[in-house]
């Protein structure tokens, strides 16, 4: 079983990354830092005659890297009580991939995966992060990925996540399941 | 009372726009089509020595247009059970504006406004759109905007929103409150 | 198509009942006022050797009345951000009925029905009533009832619901669907 | 700091009780097993001339026991994706106590407390139990109790909770906070 981490954060070594790496605990994993790449926001062309147009950015490359793994960890700081815009823009593009002849097996491939969500925020994340978890539940249900667990951590200033004993102990449990 | 509509959609005259214009009913309003502008995703620099760096894109211009109005209508198609990446990227940038010396009154100005959300989706939006509404509730609570109402509409193919009698009748009620 | 209204309220002619009757609009319907009956809280006996014991109260009679109809309207004032204890106690007993040899077709019969929820509260019900709607969603999904719509109304003092134009117009739309 | 556990379950030594006692870890605590007492469902009399009528059941005694403690642990199996009817019926009565001249300080006393929720269910509780947590959030916000943490555990058959390592490790963390 191989792991891909999709990082939605915009600050290297942020609290969310720290918590996620604590969960991974030195295991091998493919790390995709979305903010390092150019990902163009989707243009809804489902109903356009010509359909979706190919986009010359890094998205397809990232999807290929993601598809090569069994377990997906969506790791995002909580911005405005949701995933980051970078991560949402990435997921929005799945609508295009679902109709992309170059990825004819996209949905089927996704359905064989399982997913975890790790999200860290500074404002009562274990309560105010719940709509984000529910959104991920609908996302995973829609595409058919098994949603196997999540951790909501508390952190604001750099390193503060290490004070959140509950989150640290929860990701340890996630880790056991992942391996 | 003046109205700004923040459009998060990526298709002109889409169902969300139709429903919103049905609500506006010919009234004067400032229309901000986020997808027509360049909005760079935020880089979290709250903890960086040098702080946030000025970004040369259209965001500040759009915020100024938004701030000139009393009522904000956030109008977004439901993509993956949330607002569009375009709209999320726009809202994420508020974190920078809150610390931008060029907008010293940003939070205070926002607190004098009231907001509505109009969102249209194709997959059971009145149930599966609820996490999005809860997210907006936390967003508005955080910045201090009064959340005065929302409508979740059902639509997939172009024009389908006109079959959703419940949504049409609900936006009519929103409209009465807005004016 | 015949309708049963399950009333969870404890005050006759309360706002929730008014809104529901506005929706029904004089149509024939079976009205079950839970508070008028004795319904004993469930004793979880799923894992007891002897299983569930017959209970001598009004519950089975009410379930029979409910089962005779195609459309179920769950109508409850919002108490402490949920359905009333009376309604919850009634629904909890379904766990016993699911295992009751006198109701061998209970689940199958329920699965042929559709349901609506009407709930009225005094504290921002269209936002703070959303967990209740999500709970009903899971309840209906579990037993297999189709969840066809809901209305959250605002009312505190007797009759105040008639000022909630949005709720009144929404139940009118529900009504059209029901018939 | 003294602890009261309000047990909503209907089966002695059920999974929820096991998880809660694992959290308490032998500490002294007042245990209130709601199902052992007679608690009459509320009759909404806020708008009645004569107001609420005294009820001759065990409720007031239980409230006095609860009020004597600083920390409240609401411990309930998840029935139909919510708290048990027994617990809801108990909480509904708070509306009467808020207006009861024999408890003039009820709200003020409650506001000095902090609360935890422990809930165990058999059907994906960490996702499908979220509306219950959000309901408790609104309940505690309304009365002014500080909501200091929750654990959602997975268990169906007797003793199954001991397989849920994540829940066990989470309640250990709750426990550290409680003391």
Automatic annotation (TrEMBL), chains A, B, C, D:
Protein name in UniProt: Flavodoxin family protein
Source organism: Gracilibacillus thailandensis
Calcium as UniProt keyword: no
Keyword flag Flavoprotein: yes
Stretch forming the signal peptide: none
Gene Ontology terms, MF aspect: oxidoreductase activity
Highest rank taxon of the organism: Bacteria
Ranges of residues in domain NADPH-dependent FMN reductase-like: 1-123
């Amino acid at each position: 079983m191989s792991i891909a981490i999709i990082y939605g954060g915009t600050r290297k070594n942020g609290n969310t990354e720290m918590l996620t790496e604590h969960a991974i605990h030195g295991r091998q994993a493919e790390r995709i830092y979305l903010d390092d790449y150019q990902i163009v926001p989707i243009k809804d062309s489902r109903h356009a005659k010509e359909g979706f147009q190919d986009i010359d950015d890094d998205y397809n490359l990232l999807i290929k890297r993601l598809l090569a793994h069994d377990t997906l960890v969506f790791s995002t700081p909580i911005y405005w009580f949701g995933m980051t815009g970078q991560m949402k823009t990435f997921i929005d593009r799945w609508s295009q991939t679902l109709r992309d002849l170059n990825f004819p097996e996209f949905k089927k491939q996704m359905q064989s995966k399982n997913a975890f969500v790790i999200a860290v925020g500074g404002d009562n994340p274990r309560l105010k992060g719940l709509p984000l978890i529910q959104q991920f539940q609908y996302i995973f249900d829609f595409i058919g990925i098994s949603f196997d667990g999540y951790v909501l951590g508390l952190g604001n200033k750099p390193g503060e996540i290490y004070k959140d004993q509950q989150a640290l102990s929860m990701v340890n449990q996630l880790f056991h399941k992942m391996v």
